[in-house]
């Protein structure tokens, strides 16, 4: 079965969702978002524990600096994406 339904920008109304079944792309998006929420929470818990148990100097002393720098760059990239989503959400009201 070919999937020809394209997702539109913006949040579908409840009426739109109640009158039809979700297509495969919407199901994949929802699954991906659930995984993302779980992983963000997991990362938050890990970092919170590191901050609670160790000071920044110890983190820098024992960290693999190239890997730590790459991690920081990745988190910066994620942060910018979340800020963009936050701004879009604010503009939509």
Q: How are the SSEs placed, and which strands pair?
A:
Blueprint: H1 14-18, H2 24-53, H3 56-62, H4 65-92
How would you portray this structure in words?
The protein has 93 residues and is an all-alpha fold. 75% of the residues lie in helices and 0% in strands. It has helices at 14-18, 24-53, 56-62, 65-92.
Descriptive terms for the model:
elongated; 93 residues; disordered N terminus; mainly alpha
The share of residues in extended strands comes to under 5%
Low-pLDDT stretches: 1-7
Order of helices and strands: HHHH
Share of helix, binned: over 70%
Write down the overall mean pLDDT. 88
Rg over CA atoms: 19 Å
User: What best-fitting shape do the alpha-carbon axes yield?
Assistant: elongated
How can the largest sheet be summarized? none
Distance between the first and last residues' Cα: 37 Å
- The assigned structural class equals mainly alpha
Number of helices: 4
Would you count the extended β strands for me?
A: 0
Domains (count): 2
